[in-house]
Amino acid sequence: MLKKVKIIGIDNYIYTLEDNEKLYKINIEIVNIEKEKIIDSYIYLYEEILRGDNFYTYGKIEPNNVMEDKDIVKLETKYGDIYLQRYYG
């Protein structure tokens, strides 16, 4: 299930996220997006990612490539919505 969480801090690859219930610290890299521009933004992540067991890398994709897929997440920023796809490898 997707959860909407707020990005409240980034320290290297450690993202601090929060929702109404909990604070999360997970290892994420979002490539080709300035970290300063996504602080206080919202990201929709699956609960398994929020457990913080792995390192995840995401990159920007065009909105016309968006489909329902667990490897595609949405980032809501004050600059507009950005869709990200998970990179493997």
SSE arrangement:
Elements (H helix, E strand, L loop, with lengths): L1 E10 L2 E5 L4 E9 L10 E5 H4 L4 E7 L10 E6 L2 E8 L2
Parallel strand pairs: 3-5
Antiparallel strand pairs: 1-2, 1-4, 2-3, 4-6, 5-7, 6-7
Brief sketch in words of this structure:
With 89 residues, this protein is mostly beta strands. Helix content is 4%, strand content 56%.
Low-confidence stretches: none
**What does the radius of gyration come to?**
12 Å
Mean residue pLDDT: 90
The rough form would be described as globular
Q: Quick one: biggest sheet? A: 7 strands, mixed, barrel
The helicity comes to under 10%
Structural class: mainly beta
Order of helices and strands: EEEEHEEE
Helical segment tally? 1
End-to-end Cα distance: 24 Å
Side by side, the strands of the main sheet go 1-2-3-5-7-6-4
Which percent band covers the strand fraction?
A: over 45%
Account of the protein in words:
The chain is mostly beta strands and about 90 residues long. It has one domain (about 1-85). It contains one helix and seven strands. It has one helix at about 45-50, and strands spanning about 1-10, 15-20, 25-30, 40-45, 55-60, 70-75, 80-85. Strand 2 and strand 3 form a beta hairpin. The model has no long low-confidence stretch (mean pLDDT about 90).
Short descriptors:
89 residues, mainly beta, seven-stranded mixed barrel, 7 strands, globular
